[in-house]
Design brief:
There is one protein chain. The protein has about 200 residues and is mainly alpha-helical. The protein folds into two domains: about 55 residues, Orthogonal Bundle (Arc Repressor Mutant, subunit A); about 140 residues, Tetracycline Repressor, domain 2 (Orthogonal Bundle). It contains ten helices and no strands. Helix 9 packs antiparallel against helix 10. It is elongated. The N and C termini lie far apart (about 70 Å).
Length: about 200
């Protein structure tokens, strides 16, 4: 077997193992508080030994850190591709990108948002995304940075709350349609803030 083929085989094995670990973690947080989940729990759920787990993660919180990094990196890439003015003109385009990030691992993100014991993780993700949005658009949005921060925090928290409720419902409404409506609501609200700031209010 050639070196490239061997490397590819190893890479696929790593991907498969990490996927099993992530799936095991997702299952566990639906049954017990985050702080009670141990490496042994995850290893047993994933049907691997502890040594194999430690070959990929230093601890259970290493899985969480990876999830956080993935969400922030995906969101950062999305923001880099959008000008705020473009978002105001076509808000659903940004929401479609956010939806794609969630859809990449709907089961994981859905459970993180709705299972008790993960609120600190969700809070941390919100704070990181909030910082990313404010840094990306503070020079483009004609409002006070503190006002922008409040608005962004409100929007992100609201979006995740609506998504969590949808995830726990019968999902009779499509998430795409909900996202489309929310995008208009959020952007119209932002436009209102901008107009008020320009008029000397808020």
């Amino acid at each position: 077997m050639e070196r490239n083929q061997k490397a590819e085989k190893v890479d696929l094995r790593v991907v498969k193992t990490k996927k099993a670990i992530r799936k095991a973690f997702t299952e566990l947080i639906s049954r017990k508080p985050l702080e009670e989940i141990t490496v042994s729990d995850v290893a047993a759920e994933a049907m691997i030994n502890r040594k194999t787990f430690y070959a990929h993660y230093a601890s259970v919180y290493g899985i969480i850190a990876e999830i956080e990094d993935e969400v922030v990196a995906s969101f950062q890439l999305l923001l880099e591709q959008k000008r705020f003015r473009d978002i105001l003109e076509n808000p659903y385009d940004l929401f479609r990108g956010l939806l794609q990030i969630i859809n990449n691992d709907m089961d994981l993100y859905g459970r993180l948002l709705t299972v008790s014991g993960t609120s600190s993780l969700v809070h941390k993700i919100i704070q990181m995304l909030r910082r990313q949005v404010c840094e990306a658009y503070q020079d483009e949005v004609p409002v006070d940075p503190q006002v922008l921060d409040i608005v962004v925090h409100f929007i992100l928290s609201g979006l995740l709350a609506v998504f969590a409720e949808w995830y726990n419902s019968d999902q009779s409404q499509s998430i795409e349609k909900i996202s489309e409506r929310l995008s208009l609501l959020c952007i119209d609200g932002m436009n209102g803030i901008i107009r008020a700031q320009q008029a000397g209010g808020v």
